[in-house]
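Materials and Methods. Structural model of glutathione transferase. The 149-residue sequence of glutathione transferase from Penelope pileata was retrieved and submitted for structure prediction as follows.
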Amino acid sequence: SIAILLYLARKFKAPDHWYPSDLQKRAKVDEYLSWQHVTIRGKGSSLFITKVLRPLLTGQPVSPEKLKSVTEELNVVLKQFEEKFLQDKPFIVGSEVSLADLVALVELMQPFSAGYDLFAARPKLAAWRERVEEALGKPLCQEAHEALL
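The predicted structure was written out as tokens:
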């Protein structure tokens, strides 16, 4: 959870870039972490549930109309994410990776694992993903997402 991430960053005095001491940068991290619950997480989970879990649990195929609807909803928040949070910066807060980037990447991997390549038609988002994975370490990212993918 977000509360646990923030607790751990404070308790173990994580490097400043994760949860910056600079109040403006910290506010950007907090803003994203508050925004993502009903946007990126909500819409990404909805696509995953619709495309993967519901058919698995019910044995029924997903309706093309429902899949189109949840995909369009996700696309709206992905556009907002790029325009509001990424803008023309390497990371959400600026030049360094933060908890906001970590949480965003994890949330975006769920619809990606459902077979929706949300990075393919979004070069800005794809480049951001590359930077985040580089900052975290590609082997660690692969290991973290192995079961999901």
